[in-house]
Amino acid sequence: MRAKRHAGGEEPEIDLTPMLDVVFIMLIFFIVTASFIKEAGIDVSRPDAVTAVVQERANIVVAVTESGEVWINRRQIDRRAIRANIERLHAENPQGAVVITADEKADVGLMVEVMDQARQAGVYNVSIAADQK
């Protein structure tokens, strides 16, 4: 077998198009599958807990302030609309969990009401956020 010689002294070129296609497909894959950190939209002073663990799938974050305000997705929500908002967000992502981020001095009754509304909305994976000691 004889090796082919290139006429005119041209050097062979590498076609980068397939590699670029693969890179763009991988980029799209990582963007679609990435989980972004969602915040409730307000800063609260969370209590410390020794047994606090990191919640991997916390897609619905509900913040309860010291003054009794409820925030979901950077919007203040009326107490009567908590269930409807959680149902809507849960329909968008059925595997998501509800994390209640409550201020240390927040009303416990309001936190229980938010937990109850989340369970009535069909979300049974409800947690309360705390800082690790």
UniProtKB/TrEMBL annotation:
<keyword id="KW-0813">Transport</keyword>
<feature type="transmembrane region" description="Helical">
    <location>
        <begin position="20"/>
        <end position="37"/>
    </location>
</feature>
<keyword id="KW-0653">Protein transport</keyword>
<dbReference type="GO" id="GO:0022857">
    <property type="term" value="F:transmembrane transporter activity"/>
</dbReference>
<comment type="similarity">
    <text>Belongs to the ExbD/TolR family.</text>
</comment>
<dbReference type="GO" id="GO:0015031">
    <property type="term" value="P:protein transport"/>
</dbReference>
<dbReference type="InterPro" id="IPR003400">
    <property type="entry name" value="ExbD"/>
</dbReference>
<keyword id="KW-0472">Membrane</keyword>
<keyword id="KW-1003">Cell membrane</keyword>
<keyword id="KW-0812">Transmembrane</keyword>
<keyword id="KW-1133">Transmembrane helix</keyword>
<dbReference type="GO" id="GO:0005886">
    <property type="term" value="C:plasma membrane"/>
</dbReference>
<dbReference type="Pfam" id="PF02472">
    <property type="entry name" value="ExbD"/>
</dbReference>
<protein>
    <submittedName>
        <fullName>Biopolymer transport ExbD2 protein</fullName>
    </submittedName>
</protein>
